[in-house]
Amino acid sequence: MTDNQLTVGVLGTGIMGAAMARNLARAGHTVRAWNRTRAKAEPLAADGIQVADTPAEAVGTADVVLTMLHDGPVTLETMRQAAPALRPGTVWAQSTTAGLDGVTELAAFAREHGLVFYDAPVLGTRQPAEAGQLTVLAAGPAEGRDTVTPVFDAVGARTVWTGDDGAEAGATRLKLVVNSWVLAATSAVGEALALAEVLDVDPDGFFDLIAGGPLDMGYLHAKAGLIRSGQLSPAQFAVTTAAKDARLIVRAGDRHGARLDVAAASAERLERAAAQGHGDEDMAAAYYASFPDRADRADRTA
Q1: Which residues form the 3-hydroxyisobutyrate dehydrogenase-like NAD-binding domain (predicted)?
Q2: Sequence spans of domains, the chain
Q3: 20-69 residue pLDDT tens
Q4: Does the pTM of the predicted model rise above 0.85?
Q5: What is the Cα–Cα distance from 135 to 124, expressed in whole angstroms?
Q6: Which fold would CATH assign to domain 7-168?
Q7: How far apart are CA 288 and CA 277, in angstroms?
Q8: Tell me: domain 173-293, CATH 1.10.1040.10, correct?
Q9: Which position among 40, 175, 223, 244 bears the catalytic label?
Q10: Is 244 a residue of the active site?
């Protein structure tokens, strides 16, 4: 094993975590992966990844622990389960969008157990994750960066360092700002298409009108394409996860004196779409929240 080859314990193998684990293995690292539902992790064995039965088994002897779980509380509970096998000095890169309070709690856990903590949320969805093209927003101490950098290099195309304090240096703060824009744009796409439908406006007329101008953008066409084709599964970024992030954004704004009405409305739309049965679909499925029924869903996506 060369100096750059590590043993990495990956906790959480959903849309993002599974892709990150595969890219770590392709980069030559030894990877042990755990997921609460083992069946979701088992396909990773075909990539040479060891599938663990418990979080503790996954992190035992690991140089780096990478967590990519649903939220802060789930991450904290999982790390508590892993605690008996954690060694002081182990590097922990947490890539969950955990929110401000969540990151503070995770950093406190790291201090209690002598872990070298990096807050490292990522920008990107399923496709860039599978291609190893994520952007890693990282904050944490300089003395452990030589160890964690090969992990970031394996899962991402770019690492943006925001400071040397994993809890307070701004990685999660920057991620929340970026996601506030992503969620607002996604809601706007869905509402524009919904309004075009009920007003009997051909969406292509809208796209032609803005083409090439300052109102045009690739993201609009990407999300509109998913809605119009009905190709909302597999999700690039699921409705339920987006709803969680929207609530974290609203909470962060409230905590610091900013009322974020668009983020709050996006959270409500996403939660309504999840209640309609779209929770595991791409967040573009928030489009359906514009309609009180789902009876004519096939017509709407045609």
Answers
A1: 172-287
A2: 7-168, 173-293
A3: 999 999 999 999 999 999 999 999 999 999 999 999 999 999 999 999 99
A4: yes
A5: 7
A6: Rossmann fold (3.40.50)
A7: 10
A8: yes
A9: 175
A10: no
